[in-house]
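Quick one, tokens below. Sequence please?
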């Protein structure tokens, strides 16, 4: 585990150093810039676990055209530059920190396949949102660390020199030193900034993503319930079989062989027969004794 800059409460599981950065100091930090990696693979693959490492490995290559301080996917965060280092992420780069969210976030014109551009619903989907939330929590901690106001900056705010949080597209429109428009027009800035400001980013209204998530959970619970019922049927069947076998064994112990005829008697019948013969013998003995006594007289 590598902990390069010690962001409070944030555990960075890997540090993969980027190949490119600029000399000079990155202090003071005036803005945190949010990016989307835009691998042009579509939803939700662009955000899956492992994308952060693959993006960091790209930044580590001398052939890479850029670098960022952090990369977040749904499963982990990777640091690529020290926060004191000037990255190559959204020129002009000094006094800024770049956070890449693994996603296809941008306008339709940004992609070879226009349909790959994430919609708002896809950004909020459970298969993507954890990456957004991870980036937002990191952004919050960076703002706290460097005393950056937790506010979304407009292009006018950037030009006026205000400090805060913005997207790469805002930096592009302010200074025209790049042509990137990530994280795109459908990025859920309201929900993102809610998390940055300490909230959950959750809305009381159900979105399409929420409905789909509920549907998937119900489907999963239904499958689990079906599995449990099937297992119960199996267990009952096993008990029935075991009880049936036990019954046969008990039944086998309930028979004895008649020593005279060789036939099988039920144990209870045999016991009653033994008792009957004992009583019969006693009765015969009593009659014999009476006969003997009569002869003696």
């Amino acid at each position: 585990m590598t902990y390069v800059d010690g962001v409070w409460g944030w555990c960075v599981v890997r540090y993969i150093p980027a190949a490119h950065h600029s000399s000079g100091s990155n202090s003071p930090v005036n803005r945190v810039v949010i990016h989307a990696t835009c691998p042009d693979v579509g939803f939700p693959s662009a955000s899956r676990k492992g994308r952060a490492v693959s993006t960091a490995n790209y930044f580590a290559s001398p052939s890479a055209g850029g670098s960022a301080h952090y990369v977040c996917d749904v499963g982990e965060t990777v640091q690529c530059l020290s926060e004191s280092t000037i990255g190559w992420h959204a020129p002009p780069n000094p006094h800024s920190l770049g956070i890449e969210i693994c996603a296809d976030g941008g306008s339709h014109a940004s992609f070879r396949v226009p349909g790959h551009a994430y919609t708002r619903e896809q950004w909020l989907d459970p298969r993507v949102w954890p990456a957004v939330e991870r980036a937002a929590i990191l952004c919050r901690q960076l703002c706290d660390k460097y005393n950056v106001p937790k506010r979304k900056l407009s292009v006018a705010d950037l030009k006026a020199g205000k400090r805060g949080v913005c997207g790469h597209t805002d930096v592009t429109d302010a200074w025209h030193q790049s042509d990137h428009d990530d994280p795109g027009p459908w990025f859920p800035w309201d929900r993102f900034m809610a998390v940055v400001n300490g909230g959950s980013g959750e809305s009381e209204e159900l979105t399409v993503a929420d409905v789909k998530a509920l549907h998937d959970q119900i489907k999963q619970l239904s499958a689990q319930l079906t599995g449990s019922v099937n297992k119960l049927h199996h267990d009952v069947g096993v008990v029935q079989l075991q009880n049936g076998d036990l019954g046969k064994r008990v039944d086998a112990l309930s028979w004895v062989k008649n020593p005279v005829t060789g036939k099988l008697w039920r144990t209870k019948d045999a016991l009653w027969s033994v008792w009957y013969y004992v009583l019969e013998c006693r009765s015969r003995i009593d009659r014999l004794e009476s006969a003997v006594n009569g002869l003696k007289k």
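The chain is about 45% helix and 10% strand. The helical segments are 51-59, 120-123, 129-146, 155-159, 168-175, 189-196, 208-252, 267-296.
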